[in-house]
């Protein structure tokens, strides 16, 4: 069982948010997240927010003691829950999405820890979110009403997340334009131009024969 050995994380042991961008050696991976009120959260602890543009750090340690878990492909994210998450996961029954991420370790030559097809890295940067396929919900062991509710909830959550990201970008661009306009008002254009002076050399009179 790839989940054997998981222990509940204490608040001090949860991933820490960093102001970092992924380095050149970072690898593209995929992570299953829960969508709650437009926020992509850790399925396991129910608290860590895996929103686009955010970088997280948690030192990867053997025997599931620590680390950030991801899969090498979109398809691997669609495994059954018994293979993907411990039964005590906080948001096991929440609507889901797949976060496309960049993962890496430091130093760069340090390989990720492997638990079957699940990888554990120390650093993760979220690029964007992708929806879970409808077929995944339809194949889970729950009622038709529950499947429809989960699917609708996941799509609504993704729409909310996309709208929030768009609004944040729009606000940032507005602030940048205002700053540029303010700077432009402070700059006094230089008037006048340099005039180059040419020395006039009179022609010498022609000599009479």
From TrEMBL:
Bias (Polar residues) ranges: 185-195
Annotated region (Disordered), positions in chain: 184-209
Name of the molecule in the record: Uncharacterized protein
